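Troubleshooting: if your tokenizer reports a length mismatch, compare your output against this known-good record of 191 residues.
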Amino acid sequence: NAGLHLALSPGLSASLAVRTPYARKSDAESLLRYTADGGDTDILIEAAARNSYRQPLVLGAGLVSRWSEDWSAAAEVCYFGWSRYEVVYFDEPVRRTFRDVVTAAAGVEYAMKSRLGSRSVRFPIRLGLAYDPQPMSDVPSSYLSLGFGLGLRLGTLAVDLGGRIGRESGSGNALRSGRVALSVSWFSDER
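Known-good structure output:
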């Protein structure tokens, strides 16, 4: 994995990231046993193998624009090379008909300012959209999601609560997705 962050100007920055292809490996064991009722038949078949899952290349790029102290926006695109995903399960290649996909997301943030006693505090509020096409090539399916979040910045402490709800289209199943994340950070200096 590698990443690069560039501050293009005081209000604009860009980031690039890459995850090279790699293989995950796991040991697998199988046991099949058959015994016949009332007889001496006892058949035991054991097997072991080394499974592998070749993960694809992932490339990402993002932009952050801060046009005032309170307002900012961010956008990202990511490429996933799913057409080169490979699975070998119990020494047999498993056919996957995946296609490469490009995901996209964008959002805005407004940071409200207030005071908590004598300390200044910020409450970032976020709203965004994400488009996530799925890699199956036989059924063109994708998710469109709405993201939202609320944070607290108090000195060197940052707490963020975010969520994302989405709906799938294309498969005919109208699947739904949801995610909630909580992040607590402690910085060495005020941000």
